[in-house]
Amino acid sequence: VDWSVGEIMKALRKAGKAENTLLIFTCANGSVSRVSSRGAPRSVVKQFGHNSSGPWRGQKSDAHEGGHRVPFIVRWPGVVEPGASSEGLMGHQDIYATITEVLGRQQGSHGPDSRSQLQHWVNPDRSSPRGIQVHHGGNGMFAIRSGDWKLIDGRGSGGFTQPGRIQPKPGEPTGQLYNLKVDPAETTNLWFEEPGKRERLLWELNAIKAGKRL
What we know:
By secondary structure, this protein is of the alpha+beta class. It has six helices and six strands, in the order αβααβααββββα. The strands form two sheets. The chain has a four-stranded antiparallel beta sheet with strand order 3-4-5-6, with helices on one face.
């Protein structure tokens, strides 16, 4: 990956475009870290000594953070400050609206779930225009992030990490609720402790699934 990015930068410099190009580096989903994508019981961490998910729970295909939280790096000389960072929420769908604004075009009815991040990139101190992000695991288990809170509408990983789904017993939580600000590793399920947050996120998730724009 480092070599590939280097080749792209080399080509930009050779063409005299390096200082006048918006370059975005990101990737799709999380990486497979604890088992192979074919479900073999070997640990990639033990085999290669590297956990690509880092501190995040889960891996590619999971509804947990290790399944969907990915790098997003922007290089744009003279516009985006080098070394600046942000913890603001965004999704890949926001690239459409952002590039539309960069080009001075009107978004119109296209990409209704896309939010321009341009002003946030220029000034990371400004709040991200994205307040809510919805995704789901490989087996269809939905999750919603709103502010510091995240709800997973089901039990289990939702993806490759076993168990993918857990059938709740009577009296057990039917889903998962985490405060990512204080618990980024998703270790403490607050499903019963925060009923207000749980019901609000369930309402938002169901509204979005029904086609409403929040």
